[in-house]
Design goal:
By secondary structure, the protein is mostly helical. The protein has two domains: about 170 residues, no CATH class; about 190 residues, no CATH class. The radius of gyration is 22 Å and the shape is globular.
Length: about 400
């Protein structure tokens, strides 16, 4: 029998090439609490203003989640110091998530402080622990994230409309300024790609995130069934079972059609310069559209499950249909980003599914069946057209 290698005490355990560590997965579970909080908040205020505020919070928090995904790709948390950094960053994320229900009012400073912790840890870990990122990129990350933190803190102190405007400005500072800076002399601080990605780890990390976010939608189904004042009826059980089928279809739209494998292949077979752009478009921009869709749909499902046989308020019907449609559009954008055929089919299919919202005021059950039928149709047409 071959002898197993002996690891000295205190020696860091390197992960299998491309694998996600358990601590990263634990970090992701905290982020899923963010999704749960956003879903619950949207259920309380589903008007245009409420949706807009939830979208802004999701984008701000997703951008930093993505920053940590890139970070642990460059510096896996396999040493005590890196683990401590990640745990502190996790605490910052948890603080923000706790503040979500009142992030624009009484808990706005708590949210801002959580964001400060997340950014401070992110920058510190890059400065001291990451070897796979160029010094020029560290300077830029520190600058853009620092500007965003200042804007968020000032907005939290001022409150009201000023808060919203400054937080939007913070999001633009993080997402748009780096693209503008790429065309300035600052970009010439280093030559070559800013990041050296490990594609397998990157794809697996985001795939696991999507998996547990879809699991959160299942949680919304269970909470919706048990939230009524009366005993669970047959109608609720049937509605919940069919709702679970919708979650399974969205699971199949990514994992069942091997989107992760295609993405990994795409990242492995492009130049290092293009690799970053493909990763950002697919797992940055497209993925947040998918997550937004899941949040919207989960909020609509939660309300529909409380009274499955009753007509559904048009606002909640719009959340449910718009959420499923947005998820499909996000999947289409993901295919476009990785260069896989069939992107247009998914986008068009998602747009068509929006029409199901008009069935909600007649019957939430009818709307749910229409969304399931439309999703099945998209997958079947893809198979027929050999887009899988």
């Amino acid at each position: 029998m071959p002898r197993l290698p002996v690891r000295r005490r205190g020696e860091p355990t390197a992960p299998v090439a491309g694998s996600v560590t358990t601590l990263e997965l634990f970090f992701d579970l905290v982020f899923v609490f963010t999704v749960t909080q956003l879903t619950a908040t949207l259920g309380q205020d589903h008007g245009w203003s409420g949706v807009g505020r939830v979208v802004l919070l999701l984008l701000l928090m997703w951008w930093m989640y993505g920053g940590y995904a890139w970070l642990t790709n460059a510096a896996p948390p396999v040493t005590p110091m890196r683990r401590v950094f990640l745990l502190v960053g996790m605490a910052g994320n948890f603080t923000m998530a706790l503040a979500i229900p009142h992030a624009y009012t009484t808990d706005r400073v708590v949210f801002a402080v959580g964001y400060l912790i997340v950014v401070a840890v992110h920058t510190s870990m890059y400065l001291t622990q990451a070897e796979r990122i160029t010094p020029g990129m560290v300077v830029q990350l520190s600058a853009w994230n620092g500007i965003a933190v200042v804007l968020i803190l000032v907005g939290a102190l001022l409150g009201g409309t000023t808060l919203v405007l400054l937080w939007v400005a913070a999001l633009l500072a993080e997402t748009m300024l780096p693209r503008l800076a790429a065309r300035t002399p600052l970009a010439r601080l280093d030559s070559g790609p800013a990041f050296t990605l490990r594609p397998r780890h990157f794809v697996e990390r985001h795939g696991l995130m999507l998996l547990i976010v879809l699991g959160e939608s299942v949680l919304a189904i269970g909470v919706g069934v048990g939230s009524g004042e009366t005993a669970i009826g047959v109608g609720q059980v049937v509605f919940a079972a069919i709702s679970l089928g919708l979650a399974v279809l969205l699971y199949a739209a990514y994992f069942g059609t091997h989107e992760d494998e295609v993405a990994e292949h795409a990242l492995e077979h492009v130049s290092p310069e293009r690799q970053q752009a493909v990763a950002l478009r697919s797992f940055g921009y497209a993925f947040v559209v998918v997550l937004l869709g899941v949040v919207l749909a989960a909020a609509g499902l939660h309300h529909a499950l409380e009274h499955p046989t009753a007509p559904l308020d048009l606002g909640y019907a719009a959340l449910l249909a718009g959420g499923v449609a947005t998820t499909w559009v996000g999947f289409g954008a993901f295919r476009w980003a990785v260069g896989r055929p069939g992107a247009g089919m998914r986008v068009v299919g998602g747009v068509v599914l929006v029409a199901a919202m008009w069935l909600g005021p007649v019957s939430g059950f009818a709307e749910l069946l229409a969304l399931i039928g439309g999703s099945v149709a998209i997958l079947l047409i893809e198979r027929r057209l050999a887009f899988r």
